[in-house]
Amino acid sequence: TLTLPALRLESVTTVLDQRRVGDLSRRVLFGTTLVEEDGWTYVFGGDDGRPASRAASHAHVARVPEGGLADPAAWEYWDGSGWRSRARPAPVLGDGRRTGVGSAFTVTRDDGTYVLFTMAAGAQGLATVTAYWACSPAGPWHGPAGAFTPALPAAGTAAYNPQTHPELSRGGRLVLSLDVNWLETSAAAAMLSRNVSLYRPRFVTVRLGPPR
Q: CA torsion angle for 22, 25, 28, 29 (degrees, to 10)?
């Protein structure tokens, strides 16, 4: 819990204790994105133990009544068959190869449909943004579909961390932001210091429509 606007730390509350999950790739990092709907806050996360690999991560989802994020007892996790408190979260998306999410993804709700944007899994890696859709937060999720390659400012850079901005979206068009960084991590700091504008987010507008 942080104060506003100073962002001074007031307290830390453990919601899901994963210290006993020894395999870091199976620890779920909730908070990647959230959607509020029908009195619930749906919180999505991924098992981000392999950020440097091309393998896809799995997406997970939990829910709390609106206003209950700070109450660990209010959290319920999708365990594969239903919502359970203090349950081991089960993936709602991802087979570890062709389908899945990157280290960051975003979910929005459009006209009753949940839409997820992520960097494409597998060989396409950080070059392509793709989407999945579902009728409920727990899925089943369909896709990937609607892939596109965002424009990049320079050779050797990559896009990541797609985020939707519903507050900026109008008339069936959705505004999506993307961060940019250098693929070569050893040179990233030096290159960004020379041209800090490379690290600024880029924005694209996508039109949502029925799947083909």
A: 110
Q: Is the dihedral of CA 98, 99, 100, 103 positive or negative?
A: positive
pTM: 0.86
Cis check for the bond before 140: say yes or no (omega within 30 of 0).
Answer: yes
All structural domains of the chain with their residue ranges: 24-207
Would you state the pLDDT for residue 123?
46
How many other C-beta atoms are found inside a 10 Å radius of the C-beta of residue 115? 21
* Per-residue confidence band for 211, with pLDDT thresholds at 50, 70 and 90: low
**For the residues of the chain, what is the DSSP string, one character each?**
-B-TTT--B-----SS--TT---GGG-EEEEEEEEEETTEEEEEEEE-S-TTSSSPBPEEEEEEETT-TT-GGG-EEE-SSSEETT-----SB--SSSS-B-S-EEEEEETTEEEEEEEPPGGGGGG-EEEEEESSTT---EEEEEEE----SSTTEEEEEEEE-GGG-BTTEEEEEEEEEES-HHHHHHHHHH-GGGGS-EEEEEE-----
**Rounded CA gap, 160 and 2, in Å?**
27
52 CB burial (10 A radius; 0-12, 13-18, 19+): exposed
